[in-house]
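Hi Y.,

Following your request, here is the sequence exactly as I used it, all 294 residues.
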Amino acid sequence: MRPSHILQETFRSISRNRGSFVLAATVQAICLVLLSVFIILTWNLVRLSEAARRNVELYAFVADQADPMLLVQRIASLDGVAQARYVPKAEALTELRADLGSDSTLVDALEQNPLPPSVRITVRSGFASLSELAAMEQKIQLIPGVTEVWSGKEMVERLEVITRTVMFLDIGILVIVFCAVLFIAFQTVESSIASRHHEIQIMELVGATNATVRLPFLCEGTAQGMLGGAAAFVLAVLFHRLAAVVIPATALPVGIVLLADLGLGALSGVAGSLIALNRIHRAPQAVVTDDSEE
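Below is the corresponding structure, written out as tokens. Let me know if you'd prefer a different format.
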């Protein structure tokens, strides 16, 4: 069968049901853009979690009478420690003023420096998991002269919980969107089959092969899915640009979103078309029965 004939029949079927084809592709685009938004959200949460791991620091607060050089040496010798630096009380107060900005006058109102001296610890990139941070925190806490340790693992843990939750939501939305888009493709192709049932009967009577009958409908479902996917990708890009106005660091995984929209649209279009085509023989038979009853 010639490809030109397949394309001609496909376009003829689309033009015959132009309204339903465009409407179905629009609904598919709305479904797919929802998935795209969650992909963008998940991608940025993963980036944020990785950045938090790369920049994680521990603070070991020490007693005033402790030997700072000895503490720094002992902490720096621990596995996973990239750097350890002593931060005296005066420097800690200066950093606090800089962080507060215009609100630094609140610090100036204090009669004395309330901040304790500390050792700022930078962790190696391979030692930033929650279990390794907890183990390192315990080791530092046992060093004489250390009064308290803050590791920031709570923030990393919250980010991981949020990321895992969003990933589970992604899977659920993927299943729902795929089923919805597949059903839309099925309905559209089945409608096209019903509108051409007499033509299909004649083609089968004159010896047309299954490929001759089925391929145009299969191409129609695929085209509808890819059109919906392309529209969803455009909407996802617009969403990203709006989100970047509020959060400038928002990233757009172009390849992943494009592959998800076009791939899922095409796959659901093919699957929906195949399901509808399995009823290609029953549809004409039902019509013949109805005609005979009349």
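The longest strand covers residues 81-87.

Thanks again,
Q.
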